[in-house]
Design a protein that fits this description.
With 125 residues, the chain is an all-alpha fold. The protein has 6 helices and no strands. α1 packs across α3, α2 packs across α3 and α2 (37-44) crosses α4.
């Protein structure tokens, strides 16, 4: 972390640091996609307090539980393992889903999708 000044993070073991980073990323993504801890926990079938503990790095999370959380947020598990800046320059997972839908559509459907997208983008200006 910072040179000269020590903090709690400097004394964490490697597994503790990993769980801390997963929790930090979870909190960031949960808020980004508009979930409360309670709503995310309910939809994932886990306790709200467990989400809170994960987010502050107080408790570790198993892969199956992380998969449940990822399913609720509609994203791959790997996003929890990458720091925020590491995915820059790559398509967002939702972009990939959109591109897949467009790729598999007929020319007529693509024309409709294009018109709808233009309408939505103009409404948001």
């Amino acid at each position: 972390m910072s040179k000269g000044k020590l903090n709690y993070y400097d004394f964490m073991t490697m597994p503790e640091k990993i769980f801390f980073q997963i929790g930090k990323r979870l909190k960031e993504l949960r808020k980004k996609y508009g979930f409360t801890q309670a709503r995310l926990a309910e939809q994932a079938g886990i306790e709200t307090s467990f989400i809170a503990h994960i987010e502050v790095g107080r408790k570790g999370v198993s892969i199956p539980t992380l998969m449940k959380i990822a399913d609720v947020l509609d994203m791959p598990v790997e996003v929890f393992l990458r720091p925020e800046g590491e995915t820059k320059g790559r398509y967002d997972f939702k972009d990939k889903k959109l591109f897949s839908l467009i790729k598999d559509s007929t020319p007529r459907e693509r024309k409709i999708i294009y018109k709808v997208a233009r309408y939505v983008l103009k409404e948001n200006e």
